[in-house]
Amino acid sequence: MGKNVIVLGTQWGDEGKGKIVDLLTDRAQAVVRFQGGHNAGHTLVIGEEKTVLHLVPSGILRNNVRCFIGNGVVVSPSALLHEIDHLRRLGVELESRIRVSGLCPVVLPYHVAIDQAREKALGRQAIGTTGRGIGPAYEDKVARRGLRIADLLEPEICRSMVETAADYHNFVLQQYFKASPVDISQIVEECLGYGEALAPLVADVAAELYQLIEQGDSVVFEGAQGALLDVDHGTYPFVTSSNTTAGAASVGSGIGPLQFDAVMGIAKAYTTRVGSGPFPTELFDQAGEALAREGHEFGATTGRPRRCGWFDAVNVKHACRLSGVTALCITKLDVLDQFTEVKICTAYQRAGKRMDTPASQSNELMQCVPVYERVPGWRTRTAGIRTWQGLPGEARRYLERLSELIEVSVDIVSTGADRDDTLVVRHPFD
Ligand code: GDP
Ligand code: IMO
Ligand code: MG
């Protein structure tokens, strides 16, 4: 019997999901993306080779693994084709292994224009989006005016849908945002080309997954972003436009909820965030600078510096509950190697009251002051340690404390960017 395992972020993204998905596919036959779009940046490091993936699932570097883009993902055809082309140049054979659902909403240039115009208009209140058009593409999906991948394959339908949608968006761009309109006929031509290029990759992803599962294969469901960026449960409005919690794996791939066997939550050993929004444990001192420096904390998609802070057990515990996380993977433990003391946020203080759960409103979360527990650092290099017993005692105690606070076991520890720098206590496919 195969197993279906969801891997998702439990913070504000960039927890190291890509690395862990790549690692776990040693025992899986397929990987599926189920939400988000090319706002994601998932980094895989194998020896000297570093690969950053945005839409292509993180199983692509293993020759026998099939990669699916499920209906919940918003797909920029140009970004997908560029990524495929780039991987092909690197010698990755992928045409026979990658499939994209015809139901995926398409991200087009007018979405990018609206995303950027809106951020500009918000000024200091901007969300700090990746500027990739993700929000407007999801808006079009829900508004029932968006194109889907399957529409690109029907020239007449495609032309008329693009003309109508672009006309609407040009009105908004010009009249509301006082921005330049997009060139409608150029987008129509581009779309017709995308349809031809993507046609061989389009499939009924839900049906293919169903078949794989029926025949006993194991599948990894690869989340993008993190629980605190979930459009419902995250720090709204400073969130992304999709659900990033475990329920989305079912909706965004077409696989029923009872088919999942495990949910692995990925958390960094500290916290980072790109873009605006509340971040209770954010640091503005030398410790924060050290985290950014040692962790190379620059966004994999936009290159923006990531905000850094201590581990927030209140938020991660909440995130794990939202997704029914069955096991945790703590990444970037090595980044804390040189600290003499490490802090964990175990509660918040707000208006003279102690809180053990996060405030559900962003403006309330902004007023929360972290209550810290101090734990001794280990001052030892952990990179490449492969056994639990091999970890320094203080590092083990730090991880045990996180597990105790979150009430979920730590099954995997990552101590370096490389696929091999990983300590697996319990493999989710065992
Ligand atoms: P994702 O979006 O969750 O896949 O994460 P990103 O790839 O955006 O960001 C994680 C970054 O940390 C990447 O540069 C990874 O190569 C790197 N990384 C992952 N795990 C580790 C680790 O255990 N230690 C260190 N030092 N780097 C790591
Ligand atoms: P991965 O999958 C970190 C953030 C943006 C912004 C907010 C909304 O690599 O973890 P959007 O462009 O989605 O409308 O931006 O969400 N964001 C991410 N932050 N990692 C990501 O993806 C992110 N994807 C979006 O910075 O704050
Ligand atoms: Mg990332």
Question: What are the SSEs and their pairings?
Answer:
Blueprint: E1 4-9, H1 17-24, E2 30-33, E3 42-46, E4 49-53, E5 66-69, H2 77-89, E6 98-101, H3 109-122, H4 134-142, H5 149-152, H6 155-176, H7 184-198, E7 202-203, H8 205-214, E8 219-226, H9 247-251, E9 262-268, E10 271-273, H10 286-294, E11 307-309, E12 311-312, H11 313-323, E13 327-331, E14 341-350, E15 353-355, H12 362-365, E16 369-376, H13 393-406, E17 410-414, E18 422-424
Parallel strand pairs: 1-8, 1-9, 2-5, 2-8, 5-6, 6-7, 9-13, 12-14, 13-17
Antiparallel strand pairs: 3-4, 10-11, 14-15, 14-16, 17-18
Helix pairs in contact: 3-4, 3-6, 6-7
The structure holds guanosine-5'-diphosphate, 6-O-phosphoryl inosine monophosphate and magnesium ion (MG).
Structure description:
This protein is an alpha/beta fold. The chain folds into three domains: 4-101 and 202-262, Adenylosuccinate Synthetase, subunit A, domain 1 (Adenylosuccinate Synthetase, Chain A, domain 1); 109-198, Adenylosuccinate Synthetase, subunit A, domain 2 (Orthogonal Bundle); 267-424, Adenylosuccinate Synthetase, subunit A, domain 3 (Adenylosuccinate Synthetase, Chain A, domain 3), CATH 3.90.170. The chain is built from 13 helices and 18 strands. The chain has helices spanning 17-24, 77-89, 109-122, 134-142, 149-152, 155-176, 184-198, 205-214, 247-251, 286-294, 313-323, 362-365, 393-406, and strands spanning 4-9, 30-33, 42-46, 49-53, 66-69, 98-101, 202-203, 219-226, 262-268, 271-273, 307-309, 311-312, 327-331, 341-350, 353-355, 369-376, 410-414, 422-424. The protein has a ten-stranded mixed sheet with strand order 7-6-5-2-8-1-9-13-17-18, with helices on both faces. Helix 3 (109-122) packs parallel to helix 6 and helix 6 (155-176) packs across helix 7 (184-198). The longest helix is centred in the middle third of the chain and has 22 residues, at 155-176. The protein is globular, with a radius of gyration of 21 Å. The N and C termini lie close together (11 Å). The mean pLDDT is 97. The structure holds guanosine-5'-diphosphate, 6-O-phosphoryl inosine monophosphate and magnesium ion. Guanosine-5'-diphosphate is lined by residues 9, 13-19, 41-43, 45, 300, 331-332, 334-335, 414-417.
